[in-house]
TrEMBL record:
Chain ranges of the FAD-binding PCMH-type domain: 71-270
Pfam families the record matches: FAD_binding_4 (PF01565)
Family designation: Belongs to the oxygen-dependent FAD-linked oxidoreductase family.
InterPro entries the record matches: FAD-bd_PCMH, FAD-bd_PCMH-like_sf, FAD-bd_PCMH_sub2, FAD-linked_Oxidoreductase, Oxid_FAD_bind_N
PANTHER family in UniProt: BINDING OXIDOREDUCTASE, PUTATIVE (AFU_ORTHOLOGUE AFUA_1G17690)-RELATED, FAD-BINDING PCMH-TYPE DOMAIN-CONTAINING PROTEIN-RELATED
Residues annotated as signal peptide: 1-19
A GO molecular-function annotation: FAD binding
Species whose genome carries this gene: Didymosphaeria variabile
Protein name, entry field: FAD-binding PCMH-type domain-containing protein
Gene3D superfamilies in alphabetical order: 3.30.465.10
Keywords: FAD, Flavoprotein, Oxidoreductase, Signal
Amino acid sequence: MFRLSFALLAAALVNFSQAQNESEIESAVRFLFPDSYCCTVLTLSPVAKHVAFPGQSLYNTSVDSYFDVKSKLTPNCIVQPTSAEEVATTVKVLTAASLLKPCKFAVRSGGHTPIPGSNDIEDGVTIDLQHMNSTTYNAHTQVASIGPGGRWAGVYSTLEPLGRMVAGGRGSTVGVGGYLIGGGISHFAPRVGLSCDNVVNFQVVLASGRIVNANKNTNADLFTALKVNYILEVKKTFENENLWGGIVTYPASTADQHFKSFVDFGLDPNRDPNAALIVFQGYSTASPTNVVRAAFDYTKPVARPDAYKEFYAITNNISDTTKIQPMSAVAAEFGSTTTSRVQFRTLSFKLDLATLQETARLYEIMLAEIQAKASGSWRISCLHQVWSTLYTANSTARGGNVLGMERYTENFDMYQSYLSWSEAKDDELFINQGLALTNGIQKFTEEHDTAVEYLYLNYADKDQDPLSAYGADKVAFMKKVAKKYDPLGIYQRLLPGGFRISNV
Ligand SMILES: Cc1cc2nc3c(=O)[nH]c(=O)nc-3n(C[C@H](O)[C@H](O)[C@H](O)COP(=O)(O)OP(=O)(O)OC[C@H]3O[C@@H](n4cnc5c(N)ncnc54)[C@H](O)[C@@H]3O)c2cc1C
Ligand SMILES: *[C@@H]1O[C@H](CO)[C@@H](O)[C@H](O)[C@H]1NC(C)=O
Ligand SMILES: *[C@@H]1O[C@H](CO)[C@@H](O)[C@H](O)[C@H]1NC(C)=O
Ligand SMILES: *[C@@H]1O[C@H](CO)[C@@H](O)[C@H](O)[C@H]1NC(C)=O
Ligand SMILES: *[C@@H]1O[C@H](CO)[C@@H](O)[C@H](O)[C@H]1NC(C)=O
Ligand SMILES: *[C@@H]1O[C@H](CO)[C@@H](O)[C@H](O)[C@H]1NC(C)=O
């Protein structure tokens, strides 16, 4: 098992309706604290030594480490706590200070979500968990304690020498915290389930500043809701073995053959649970050929396993990086840091060949449009993954999650469009093209009855509503849990970024 202690941020007791005249208070606060009231209060608190201001090198390093350049904002200050206790102190200080003037804040772990304002804040305080990145392993319980601010590269390089592994991100640079909140799809998912279901304990900082554990026996409702909500996690480990994995690149003309093989793979009732697969169409200015790629990742050290047999019949590949290698090396190939602007969008639909072909038709239209209009360097990837019922097969026995997967008895295609570009002046072009693509696919799936309601939170865009897509019963449950553990709705009010249950 994977044991993860997570620190969730909790609630204090603020009643703004009691404030006499807010604009009068605001101007008084501004007069007393011309820089930033909330940041000044933090500098008078026990976390003062971890507060960084614009112009300082720690501040620069933090804002420069966002995956998506347009998500890099200019918070009034950044707090970098080193323990759950310091996260709790930060939350208590900000909520107490909010009695006078709301101290809005953001939380970030790896900073990989490409939605500006989800993991950063323009006029407020960013709590950056990057220093809480330790991974420790308990050989007796076979559980690893993983800090929320870690990247998966660090987790794998710590566990591999100990002969252990956990189900984590496929890319080395992805953060632990945000990844687990969305559920977490790893190469091991068909074998061991979603990453969030491998967590045995979350350490949570409540809005009151109290630190609690959430697991199957203690605060069990919070434990279930956090799988897709939140901070320090403890994950169950399993034996480490090398994988056979890599990326094979083919000419664009093989798209149809790939889609047919993908549908067969996805619908195979006897699918080998060691076999993970991503099929994607792509183009980049760095390597200007329209291609189809297949990422084969088999979680046992077996070269060319039969699970991908149908794909081996597509013989005209351009390059092939598959080999037997450790998870850390597989993750390094998938890992990327960007200096680009990024958009992710997601949709789900049935494993239906005509629908996949329609995604390819719309991809070609988008590619032509972008080629005609974009400047600088850019890249497009449109990814197909099988969402397998195996991912959540044993979820309930492990405390359940809020993804609402019980509704689905058939595997489906979880689609992601991933656009990245260098020029700010092209923001509108790429954002609109990505939107037109997923709108076009959605229209087709609705007309052909191949739509699947589910939206994977980790790939969702700002205007998408993944929490509603978990189903009305899960929304009601999350609202109830949020109210129980944060009765005053402090996190819902002071933490504006990300997908909030109060917005559903
Ligand atoms: C190159 C790349 C590869 C990827 N590969 C995969 C993959 O294999 N599988 C997969 O499932 N997803 C994958 N993703 C998606 C990824 O899981 C999400 O982008 C995820 O949000 C990243 O986590 P983070 O900690 O870096 O995010 P951040 O941007 O730091 O956080 C995301 C959100 O979670 C909140 N949050 C983060 N940490 C905490 C915390 N400790 N407590 C409370 N709230 C918190 C933030 O406020 C923010 O709203 C990938 C993304 C990229 C860019
Ligand atoms: C608050 O005070 C300002 C300035 O004194 C005034 O213009 C405004 O009308 C007041 N607002 C309320 C809601 O009383
Ligand atoms: C931080 O970045 C700002 C703006 O780019 C720059 O003016 C400043 O010199 C940097 N500070 C340090 C310590 O590097
Ligand atoms: C934790 O972060 C520090 C500072 O960024 C880094 O030097 C270290 O390698 C990281 N450790 C792990 C295990 O990722
Ligand atoms: C689910 O549980 C069964 C029975 O214990 C086990 O054989 C199987 O591997 C588990 N599957 C996942 C995905 O955890
Ligand atoms: C890719 O092509 C090379 C050269 O023909 C071949 O050896 C390799 O097996 C192919 N890879 C796959 C996955 O089919």
